[in-house]
Amino acid sequence: MKSAEAAEIVGDLASQQWGLVSSAQAKAAGVDLPSLRRLTNHGVLVRVRHGVYATTATALSAELELKAQWLALQPELMAADRTSDAKLAAAAVVSHDTAADLWGIGDLWPDGAHFTVADRRQSRQPDVHFHRAALGDTDWTVHPDAGLPVTVVSRTIADLARAGHEPGHLLDMVADAARKRLVGEDELLESLDGLEAAFGVDAGDQDGMADLLAEYFPGEQPDKRTLSLFSEAFGLSRSRWRF
């Protein structure tokens, strides 16, 4: 295949997914590996990671590298085909530290790309980390800007709490998430049920956890006397009364 024809094919593929194309996608479209190497040598493509290339017009960034890592998990499929199919999208979801960075919450030191996967898998890339877990439909979404499947903010913070991050770091994420209105107080409280100790609250103290989160979600809250009267009248713990 002539280089001009190969360049046109990979350019069309890359235009559909952030300026990136995998060697598997190119091969399926008729562009073999030697042709990709020639395009790289001629400055048409740049290798982002093994098996994934970017057009030279594409600005390289940490987010683009993350997208390249995600593409490489199922390199034969186009990004749109994966994100439009819930089962395919949920097979590999950006999570943990990487999800926090994508949402812009907290200030964790980046340590590669983290993905939650349904089935056990390994990567030869030392900076790719897999976490095996079954995600529910409400645990993930497609990021509105990045276009990648990512754990929702409440799940992200819960995952990082389970991973053993310090309370100060976790609360920084809560503060950022609340300020940016990325998560609701009730949703976060429910997600963190059983993780109170990770935030410096006594284990199982849901009321204490509710009080802690309330500091980051300012708004009209019932005073403690009113809340206590409700609790006594209906026999419910205070944590059930969220206004």
How is this structure best described in words?
Among the domains are: 1-60, Winged helix-like DNA-binding domain superfamily/Winged helix DNA-binding domain (Arc Repressor Mutant, subunit A, Orthogonal Bundle), CATH 1.10.10.10; 164-240, no CATH class. Strands 1-3-2 form a three-stranded antiparallel β-sheet. The chain has helices at residues 3-15, 23-28, 33-41, 62-73, 79-83, 86-90, 96-103, 153-162, 167-179, 185-191, 206-214, 224-234; strands at 20-22, 45-49, 52-55, 92-94, 113-117, 128-132, 140-142, 149-151. By secondary structure, the chain is of the alpha+beta class. The longest helix has 13 residues, at 3-15.
What does the secondary structure layout of this molecule look like, with pairings?
Layout: H1 3-15, E1 20-22, H2 23-28, H3 33-41, E2 45-49, E3 52-55, H4 62-73, H5 79-83, H6 86-90, E4 92-94, H7 96-103, E5 113-117, E6 128-132, E7 140-142, E8 149-151, H8 153-162, H9 167-179, H10 185-191, H11 206-214, H12 224-234
Parallel strand pairs: 5-6
Antiparallel strand pairs: 1-3, 2-3, 4-5, 7-8
